[in-house]
Structures are given as structure tokens and as C-alpha cells.
Amino acid sequence: MLLTFKIDDWTCGIDIDAVEKTYRAAALTSLPDPPHAVLGILDIRGAVLPVVSLRRRFSLPDKALSPTDCFIVARTPQRPVVLVADALGEVFAPDAAALHPAEHLMPALAYLTGVVSTRQGLILIQDLEKLLSLEETAQLDLAMRDYEHDAI
């Protein structure tokens, strides 16, 4: 099962089991020297979580956060993160025959696990294990430590 959402004209999806909650967009706190894909941080019920822009992952132009944007709190193997979406879609059970491994279709997009073909178009399935590279994870860890140190 996938939770679908929109980024520009693209439909994306993530495994529903990785989704903790969705929220309306809110103001972010900046981080010192974050990875390019990280917009900032957000305090959600006492947990400080990095906010990741899939827009930047897809090399789409940045856009200012809007009250109509959505935040998706999702668990990655490293930590929970917040993904920014233009709009939420539906929970969708893809047909196995319509699922295509990403490396066959889009080898340059290593952070996708696959693509689902539907009547409405393609759904790009995000690989939360590869959302941030090892280098980006290390850079984020350092930025989060610097933020926590400065906040004390």
C-alpha cells in the first residue's frame, strides 16, 4: 500500500507503513549548513525532525511553503523525517504487474524503488532507505548537533 502525493505535476508514493502522520505545512527553523535536500527542521510534539524537499531531489525549482502544502512524517532507517508535498493523494494498492523497478526506467534516480503505471499516469515510489546519501546523513547529523548545541 502506498500513500500518494503530488510534487508539481508528478505523483509520488511512499510505503504507507513508513508514514506516521500528515500535517498542514508550518514555518520551519533553519539549520546551519544542512544538506541541499533539507529545508530546515520542525518540532513535532517535542521531536526535532529534518524537513526534506523531494522537489530538490528531482531538481525542480524551489517554491515557498504555502499553507496548502502538506508535511508527511515518515520513518527512514536512520531517523524520522518530514517530506514536503504540494498535496496529498490517496492510499493506493498497486497491481504487481504495473510495478516496474526504477533502475530499469530511471537509473539516475537512485532514491526511487520503482514506478507504478496507472491510468492516471506514473507514480514514482520513493526509497526512504536512500532518501539521503551517507554523506548527506553525516552532514545532517552534524547540522542537527550544531543546532542542539546552539539551542542550549
3D architecture notes:
InterPro entries: CheW, CheW-like_dom_sf, CheW-lke_dom. This is Purine-binding chemotaxis protein CheW. Residues 1-137 form the CheW-like domain. One of its GO terms (biological process) is chemotaxis. The chain has 152 residues and is α+β, with helices and mostly antiparallel strands. It has a single domain (2-151), classed as OB fold (Dihydrolipoamide Acetyltransferase, E2P) (Beta Barrel). The protein contains three helices and eleven strands. The protein has a six-stranded mixed sheet. The chain has a five-stranded mixed sheet with strand order 3-6-7-5-4. A hairpin with a 2-residue loop joins strand 10 (112-118) and strand 11 (121-126). The protein is globular. The relative contact order is 0.24.
Descriptive key words:
single chain; 152 residues; alpha+beta; OB fold (Dihydrolipoamide Acetyltransferase, E2P); five-stranded mixed beta sheet; CheW-like_dom_sf; Purine-binding chemotaxis protein CheW; CheW-lke_dom
What is the secondary structure topology, with strand pairs?
Elements (H helix, E strand, L loop, with lengths): L1 E6 L2 E6 L3 E6 L13 E7 L2 E6 L1 H4 L12 E6 L4 E6 L1 E6 L6 E3 H4 L6 E7 L2 E6 L7 H18 L1
Parallel strand pairs: 2-11, 5-7
Antiparallel strand pairs: 1-2, 1-8, 3-6, 4-5, 6-7, 9-10, 10-11
InterPro entries: CheW, CheW-like_dom_sf, CheW-lke_dom
Protein name: Purine-binding chemotaxis protein CheW
Pfam family, one: CheW
